[in-house]
């Protein structure tokens, strides 16, 4: 039974476009302008041994865009696409969703880079696009590692300047890498999953045959986490995103998009505005000083999120406006990272405020407990009934990507759902 369930979960997880939406041809390797910035301990020759320049066909040429064939530790060759933004400080390593490849993501990555003023690297998983090998969980973990090393060794990007972005199934390799690399700048989870099995069934425990166990790994992520999810998502319920945000150590104000589904979140103006605000906030964080030393070893198993992080610190209600609510003093401050030190400071500041009556304190404590219990009960509710896996598979096969014009403001009328 376990093997059957695992097979079903794997079939749900991987639907590479067939045929691929682009092609590649080898091209001569030009001199690397950033050769001097190649990471210490490696050389341009060593980097070239596992990474070669290719040209993408079937997509329009764009200045500042290049592609490479990168060898992974599992022996497959994946295609990675790099979009350079002049004077960008941060680089986004983007793990796309299902039924997508670099050809379909091409224009979106270019707009993403231009609107957010970041460099972007996207890559195709093994078995997707023109990447070799077969799609599988273990391969995707090796794929994102190879893309990350390409950023560091070929493009001279510091780990402290890399933001990991995972969409839908892409949240699996994103959370896995973030749980092992504690010096990255931040993590964005877009319509993420708790695990492969939990997308289809309401299970309370994690089974060994499950895939992408994000629910187990997210507490090990030590960097700021932004979660974005649509309230009308009928592929991955919004409760997945809320639970992952709940379990994060460093919570940034999440974005629950009212009326958003699994594949159209980019069509909401609040999406790009909230991302800009998040990137602006994390740019101001010290890079490398407070981050853990560069180590790819997993943290100790007994490490857990700080108990001092209050679930009520960031808003749970979904809103398409970024301005904090004026009706609640808790929302009068701009969104900020919910770290342990900030929480302690808030508590100590609260102690110095003028004394409240004992009745008011008891009432406030009762409301806080009731709110927490309500959140916990809500998260423990069984997920709404899912479509059959066959119907879900056909739906995903039929879906594409939203139009890149979704980044334009005001956005054009939303097209029929063509998600990841």
From TrEMBL:
Amino acid composition bias (Polar residues), ranges on this chain: 303-322
Domain Serine aminopeptidase S33: 87-195
Family annotation (Gene3D superfamilies): alpha/beta hydrolase
InterPro entries: AB_hydrolase_fold, Hydrolase_4
Region annotation (Disordered) ranges: 292-390
Compositionally biased region (Basic and acidic residues): 323-334, 350-390
Protein name, per record: Serine aminopeptidase S33 domain-containing protein
Source organism phylogeny: Eukaryota, Viridiplantae, Streptophyta, Embryophyta, Tracheophyta
Designated gene of the protein: LOC100825329
């Amino acid at each position: 039974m376990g093997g059957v369930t695992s097979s079903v979960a794997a079939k749900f997880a991987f639907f590479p476009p067939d045929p691929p939406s682009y092609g590649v041809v080898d091209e001569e390797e030009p001199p690397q302008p950033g050769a001097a910035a190649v990471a210490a301990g490696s050389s341009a020759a060593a980097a070239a041994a596992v990474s070669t320049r290719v040209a993408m066909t079937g997509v329009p040429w764009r200045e500042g865009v290049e592609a490479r064939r990168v060898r992974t530790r599992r022996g497959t060759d994946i295609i990675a696409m790099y979009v350079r933004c002049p004077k960008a400080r941060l680089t986004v390593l983007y793990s796309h969703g299902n039924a997508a490849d670099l050809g379909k993501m091409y224009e979106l990555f270019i707009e993403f880079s231009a609107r957010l003023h970041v460099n972007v690297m996207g890559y195709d998983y093994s078995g997707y696009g023109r990447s070799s090998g077969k799609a599988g969980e273990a391969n995707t973990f090796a794929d994102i590692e190879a893309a990350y090393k390409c950023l560091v060794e070929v493009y001279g990007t510091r780990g402290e300047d890399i933001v990991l972005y995972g969409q839908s199934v892409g949240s699996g390799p994103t959370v896995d890498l973030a749980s092992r690399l504690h010096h990255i700048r931040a993590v964005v989870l877009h319509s993420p999953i708790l695990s492969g099995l939990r997308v289809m069934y309401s299970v309370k425990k994690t089974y060994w045959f499950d895939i992408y166990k994000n629910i187990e790994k997210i507490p090990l992520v030590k960097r700021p986490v932004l979660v974005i999810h649509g309230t009308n998502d009928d592929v991955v319920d919004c409760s997945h995103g809320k639970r992952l945000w709940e379990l994060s150590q460093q919570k940034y104000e999440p974005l629950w998009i009212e009326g958003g589904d699994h594949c159209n979140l980019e069509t909401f103006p609040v999406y790009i505005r909230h991302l800009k605000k998040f990137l602006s906030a994390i740019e101001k964080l010290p890079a490398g000083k407070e981050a853990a030393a560069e180590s790819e070893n997993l943290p100790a198993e007994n490490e857990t999120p700080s108990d001092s992080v209050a679930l009520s610190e960031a808003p749970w209600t979904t809103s398409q406006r970024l301005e904090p609510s004026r009706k609640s003093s808790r929302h009068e401050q701009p969104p900020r990272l919910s770290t342990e030190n900030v929480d302690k400071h808030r508590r100590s500041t609260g102690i110095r405020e003028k004394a409240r009556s004992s009745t008011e304190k008891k009432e406030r404590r009762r409301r806080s407990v009731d709110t927490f219990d309500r959140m916990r009960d809500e998260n423990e509710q069984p997920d709404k009934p899912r479509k059959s896996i066959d119907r879900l598979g056909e739906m995903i096969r039929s879906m594409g990507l939203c139009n890149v014009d979704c980044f334009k403001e005001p956005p054009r009328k939303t097209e029929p759902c063509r998600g990841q």
